Amino acid sequence: MQSPSVHILYRLAIVLSVAILSCQSAIAQTQPHRLEGIVLELQSGESMSDVLVTNIQTDASTRTDREGRFAIAASLDDRLKFEYSGYRTDTVVVIEYGLKRVYMTPADGSIMIDAVSITAMTDHRLHVEIERARQEGAVAESSQYRGGLRLSPSRLFGNEGKQARQRYQLLIAERERREVERRFSPEAIQALTPLTGRELDLFRAKYRPEPGFVATASEQEMQLYIMDSYAAFTRLSEAERAAIRLEED
Predict the structure, then answer these.
(1) Which pLDDT tens digit goes with each residue over 194-246?
(2) Most distant CA pair in the chain: distance in Å?
(3) How many CA atoms lie within 13 A of 147 on its CB side?
(4) What's the predicted TM-score (pTM) here?
(5) CA 155, 160, 162, 168 torsion-angle sign
(6) Which of 22, 128, 148, 193 is most buried, taking the most CB atoms under 10 A from its CB?
């Protein structure tokens, strides 16, 4: 059995390793990359040219070409703003460097909310729709004459209220998914492990953390989770790894 002093030194070594890797990861994340994407009109799916794309952190800007494509220097967690006359100004947070598809909606238009359109929303648009669904699905409303709150049977039992609450759940699930993707990204994992390619895909499918944990975990706790999960991953047999199902399988 290890002595208390050996156990303490072991834990200190882990904490020191995490701190060093955190510094390296932070430096890597601040280095700008060439981020490429395409801007599409949400209702028609057609590409949009001459959309102004601005990196809010650096003030760098560009415009989409005739095919709706753009390229701009950006680091992780930078916010990109998209502007076009007659359409809602929207923002996107950079959580990875893959090709971005950004969908814009008319300033005075409304769209049907389903799982496909939800994943196509920018972060700002998602926030707006969450608040709208929350208000439309509320079963209580304030009264300016009697004061306080009163139950609204139409919201409680009506189809519109039920649909709004269903939309709200879908929207919240999408927000949670994005936060998990941001903090359990390939870049975050590769900063702490040697995983690449299909091994990286299997690891992310097997050890994807729960949204509740991600929402409350500190950066150090998230890094320790990745390291502990990687240690467990290395102990899996070939049969156990083969049993992991990826989304495309």
Answers:
(1) 999 999 999 999 999 999 999 999 999 999 999 999 999 999 999 999 999 87
(2) 73
(3) 0
(4) 0.52
(5) negative
(6) 193
Residue 55, H or E segment: strand 52-55
Residue spans of alpha helices (H) in the chain: 4-30, 115-120, 123-137, 153-157, 159-183, 186-190, 197-207, 211-216, 219-234, 238-242
**Which DSSP helix (H) or strand (E) runs through 42?**
none
| Integer Cα distance of 39 and 189 in angstroms | 29
Backbone angles phi, psi at 189, to 5 degrees: -70, -45
Half-sphere exposure (Cβ direction) of 36: Cα atoms closer than 13 Å: 5
Residue reference for tokens 């995490």? 18
Rg for the chain (alpha carbons), in Å?
Answer: 23
Angle between helices 219-234 and 197-207 (to 10 degrees): 110
Query: Which one, of 33, 34, 35, 70, lies nearest residue 49 by Cα?
Result: 70
Q: Alpha-carbon distance 77 to 56, whole Å?
A: 11
